[in-house]
Design goal:
alpha+beta, Aminopeptidase, 5 helices, 7 strands, globular
Amino acid sequence: MGSSTGIRLIEPTDAVPIAGHRMRDLEAFRPWEPVQPPEFFTPEGQAERIDSLLASYRAGTVWPGVVLADDQVIGQVTVGGIRQQPHLRRGSVGYWIGSVAQNQGHAGQAVGLVLSVMTDELGLHRAEASTHLENLPSQRVLRRNGFSPYGVAHSSILLDGSWRDGLLWERILGD
């Protein structure tokens, strides 16, 4: 891999590069993500989404990050569904990498970095994730970062007009 990978909290100025990736990769991501309205793929739509993510960050329910390669935004990594109660200290990891930077190890490194954020900054005990049963590259990323599959969520997400199953993953942090 020729470039270094980093993550940081998302910023309003990230709307333009994120919209660029999302528009260019619209067809590539279609099998893995729900249908989005056209404005989702515009800088204005991404700016609204980032504002919402940052509001959720301030509320303590989301840690929204961007993935960087040599300081350029190439994707996102997010911890959602953060639960901070003493008996529920967990969050769910989601990520994507733009096609121009895929297959270079960035997703795996970004997940490793966000696991450190979950442990050190957020004080979480458990990381969760889900993948589509067919998404073998994403499953490899999770497995390399110490996640184990623990179940199947049947008909859990509507994609391309049909309900799809999801493979559920877990990792106990600090282990």
